[in-house]
């Protein structure tokens, strides 16, 4: 090998890989976010162990259950109390606690397939099981997902009614996260459910974030859940618990689901910390979600106004107004350029306007997700517009480098 070739090989070996660069940027982004004095959300999962444990005390979680009671074993005690509370909130006969939503939904739809005699599950192409679960439905549970639509919205009643093959269950993700946390109107949702019923299919709600949908629908949680035969909800996405999920529905379905929970390895020996954090989330965060949704609309409008005032040629807040307290922002720049500007703003000013990753949407087009929670309530519309102006100035510097 020539000296030149050897030098080039050595230089190449010293350059970090794309994966390494992404890892370093993520670590830098999270570090800047954690040290920022102003953010729009502070989800607990990025906290230290000490901070996570302290949260139970701050949320008065230790007052939510009798701590002199014997600890849970394989799903009794405090876990049963959480199941009862969840079933009551959703207006369902019973509920079962699961360590993950992936497991909960596989079990639910497997149980329904046994009842309907049809393993086909109609869902959206962007539904969580299709995008993020490595074909778990088909590879683990013997289910056959069929895609009703790939449009960036929930399926329509016509699409469900006219779908060209039979299915045993219709699964609706509310809100549809990968399309921008979008929801249908109440009328559209009821029509879709009716269309599924006409086809003698059961309806299952993937309600990981169903808790935050009440403002958009203008209906209480119980009335929304009543449309579905079964509902899955998460305890950490909106409620900031340590983890866990619940499946709610008819008593006979939930009883069978608990049997399958055991078979899938979900009968965990003890889960009291997670259950206690879920009860704390129901007590602390659930009542505040409507306030977060209302303020998300203030933040979204200020973002749009701020980008227009800063001279950005095109910017999109999606959906506008937001359907929940989470939404997307699209900008006509390279994702790496946007990510660097966002990190520099947090590092240099202590203000993390965009704390999440930027993903490619197309050539020189990227988007990020914005979460609006308790920390955002301290921001006025003027605060948001000023932060946008600072961000755009840093973005301009990055573009011209």
In total, how many domains does the architecture comprise? 2
Query: Mind telling me the CATH class of the largest domain?
Result: Alpha Beta
Cross-sheet strand order for the largest sheet: 2-8-7-6-5-3-4
Order of helices and strands: HHEHHEHEHHEHEHEHHEEHHHEEHEEEH
- Give the integer mean of the pLDDT values: 94
CATH superfamily of the largest domain: Type I PLP-dependent aspartate aminotransferase-like (Major domain)
Give the helix/strand class. Answer: alpha/beta
Family: Belongs to the threonine aldolase family.
Biased composition (Polar residues): 1-15
Organism: Streptomyces lanatus
Protein name: Beta-eliminating lyase-related protein
3D structure, described in words:
Helix content is 47%, strand content 15%. The chain is globular and about 60 Å long. The strands form three sheets. Strands 2-8-7-6-5-3-4 form a seven-stranded mixed β-sheet, with helices on both faces. The longest helix has 21 residues, at 289-309. The protein has helices at residues 3-14, 18-35, 49-58, 78-90, 101-116, 128-132, 136-140, 157-161, 186-198, 214-217, 221-225, 251-263, 272-284, 289-309, 335-349, 381-400; strands spanning 38-39, 94-98, 120-124, 144-149, 169-173, 202-207, 230-234, 245-249, 316-318, 326-331, 351-352, 358-362, 365-371. The protein has 16 helices and 13 strands. By secondary structure, the protein is α/β, with parallel strands linked by helices. α14 crosses α16 (381-400). The chain folds into two domains: 18-47 and 288-400, Aspartate Aminotransferase, domain 1 (Alpha-Beta Complex); 53-284, Aspartate Aminotransferase, domain 2 (3-Layer(aba) Sandwich). The model has no long low-confidence stretch (mean pLDDT 94).
